[in-house]
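Tutorial, part two.
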Amino acid sequence: MNEKDTNRVTAKLIRDFTRGHLTRREMLQKAVTAGISAAAVTSLASVSARRSYAQDATPAPDPSAGNTIVVPQGLRTDLSGQSIRAVLADSTSADGPFLEAALAKFGEATGITVEFIRGETSATDRLQAYRQEWAAESADTDVFQIDVIWPGVVAEHAIDLSESLAELATQQLEALIANNTIDGALVGMPWFTDAGLFYYRTDLLEKYALPVPATWAELATSAQTIQDGERAASPNFAGFLWQGNVYEGLTCNGLEWQVSNGGGNIVEPDGTVSVNNEQAIASFDRARTWVNTISPEGVTTYQEPDCQTIWVAGNAAFCRQWPGMYSASQDSDAIAGKVAVAPLPMGGGDGARNAATLGGWQMMVSRYSEKQDAALEFVKYMCSPEVQRSFMLERSHAATVPALYEDAEVQEASPFFASLGPVFQGGAVARPSSVTGALYPEVSSIYFTELNQVLTGSKSGADAAAAMESQITELIEGDDL
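Running the prediction step on this input gives:
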């Protein structure tokens, strides 16, 4: 069996399992019978474990979810009866009830049924799963939620949206449309955007008479003071939470540390690999000092859901997280009304500044979909100003339509969005995905793998930065970037 056939069979087994048509044992037995490699069988077993976790994490239905959605005008009704599948959120996302409500309203308006698929929690794992499906040229999934850093990677598997969704594109942030345009083709439509934020407990700053930290040094001092005081009543209370696991989220954190310290952008716009410098090294070593002091020892394994679980329980003073956690904070019995956000602290090196890694998600229509018209209509609906407005109101996701930030109801319902202005305008920094293109996932993997070794004490910042520089340079030069 050649590689393409193997990928096709593997994708079909995953599909049948996730739909409940096969048991885990049946899936693995069929894989072995088909002669699929041991590595692929291991991947299938991992999928089964993640599926069980996703089922356990599914939130209970929320009857009020989606009640702010106004269906946009002009949706097609001549595609009634068609059914598509879309990956829209990860297995731990609390957005499920809203998304289910949005899909139901879309179905009522168009007659198109959308099956909601949950993807991998880790962006790194998510892209790996997508690539496996695309390698098989599978028509099984019609719409994919894609990370802001993936357009160069997914371009060959996506249809061009520039003509079919031209009007919608004009309403989006120009920078995001440019980011999603590869060789003249618009491969993704912006859905919601993100930037790293600094969350803090207003009640605890008042209790200990502390200002909002403006530098990393101030953060360390304040986090230690609050942690020491709170641990008398809460032994596991943490001063500062962030994402330190070996995955894309650590690249986001690390880039903020080094840029805020004047340490460059890993790879500069002209292709120069700039990560191996004194300011970047100092920022890595500084982050290492947080582990098992103001941050839990296990922070080197944390991803966003881990931080949010601790945060909403009221067990931390500060947290680096994306805008979506604000809504969860306000829903928490422990901290509702006690949370505010600010730009992340800055470092102390030459060129120090506030820095917030840009994030966000787009929607792409698969080139292999057999129902592209229905998929396009769904993207048009989900990325519309109307649905994005509701996503802001109900789930605190930052819209990609600038006009929505001037909406009076949005401002009244969530003054939080006014806090995002300084972040997006004054400190936003993009990962080097445009300059590295399809190589970006490998560049990021090198970066976060080496950086995690600093955080766990396996390497010094200097050794890790040198290794990053060597490996990234070799990768880029080998591809003639």
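The chain is about 45% helix and 15% strand. In part three we will examine how such features are distributed along the chain.
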